[in-house]
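User: quick one, fold this
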Amino acid sequence: MRFLIDFFPIALFVVAYKLQGIYTATGVLMAATVLQTALIYGIDRRLQTLQKVTLALVLVFGALTLVLQDDRFIKWKPTVLYASMAVVLAAALWIWKKNFLQMLLGSQLKLPDGVWARLTVVWVAYFLFMAGLNAYVAALYSTEDWVNFKLWGYVFPVVFIVGQGLYVARHLKDDAPHQQP
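Assistant:
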């Protein structure tokens, strides 16, 4: 269910783009992201920082796209989001000596500190990769190609999350008592 909530703004954006073009699609993305945020808030009764930042960037870059009639703003929004997340996670870990990933997920996952540090470094690398990839496609390809990339590029986060799940599973502490045969 959560995957559908996360995916539907992009899916609606692509459909609206195919039917009506980038400016209609941008408006649809803005509305769908507001709805998505409301749904998440309705389910969780709170919003994570990433959800708030994503909503703000979609609304700001979307508004700039619509007001200035310039699709570069909406195309560069993912690069700004990914790069910002990489900078925040890296600065927190290496400058402020805080692990934001552990602070966000530590109550749900019991992992050794070293594993949290490695996970954070991998997340920083992933966000930089995605920022660079989006920048590359946004700068060098047509809007049509970029929209198609947004749809089919969803494979990157899926593969990344599955990989993270496999890595984390190896390090989870088993709190259940073991029975002797």
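User: anything notable?
Assistant: The radius of gyration is 18 Å.
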